[in-house]
Design brief:
This protein is of the alpha+beta class. The chain is built from six helices and four strands, in the order H-E-H-H-E-E-H-E-H-H. It has a four-stranded antiparallel sheet. The protein is globular, with a radius of gyration of 19 Å.
């Protein structure tokens, strides 16, 4: 008996069989502010650590739920500012599929941030997905940050960047 598989059958199978989920190959947390600034802004290191761990777990869950068209690496920047507000910026190459980027944003928004004071607190998750080469740069430079620095004509403190760009959509 000869098995013939037509184009319609292959198309149907591609819909029924989910693509392989993205794999987090490697990750590490990168602090983006001086220690003294972080100590002044984070009243409870334990509460902040619990929050970061909860957000990371939510992000990892989102990553595992999506397939990537190709390996990617870079940074996901997490910022928390007074008023228990959080947001993220992405600096990943190649850019993540919009569905995954949205899932990361949504999961960040669903996790209640800790109290911080005197300005924003920023960290980044440096990561490699699906075996992408580890990023060579030490710190993130999301597109919006690079554009703001170019307009200013000088380097801008990461806290000032976050405050200035907080309400602007990343897309």
């Amino acid at each position: 008996m000869t098995l013939r598989v037509g184009a319609a059958t292959l198309a149907l199978l591609s819909v029924l069989v989910p693509a392989r989920a993205a794999e987090l190959t490697r990750h590490e947390v990168v602090l983006l502010q001086p220690d003294a600034e972080l100590r002044a802004r984070v009243p409870s290191v334990d509460a902040y650590g619990d929050y970061v761990n909860a957000v990371r777990a939510a992000w990892f869950e989102a990553i595992r739920a999506h397939a990537l068209p190709q390996p990617a690496a870079g940074f996901v920047v997490l910022a928390v500012r007074p008023g228990q507000q959080a947001r993220l910026w992405l600096d990943v190459e190649p850019p993540l599929p919009e569905a995954l980027a949205d899932a990361l944003r949504q999961r960040t928004a669903r996790t209640l941030p800790p109290v911080v004071r005197q300005g924003p607190v920023l960290i980044a998750l440096k990561l490699s997905l699906d075996g992408a080469p580890w990023p060579r740069k030490a710190a993130p430079e999301p597109l919006a940050w690079r554009q703001a620095a170019a307009i200013a004509g000088e380097a801008i403190d990461v806290s000032d960047l976050a405050q200035a760009l907080w309400d602007r959509p990343e897309r």
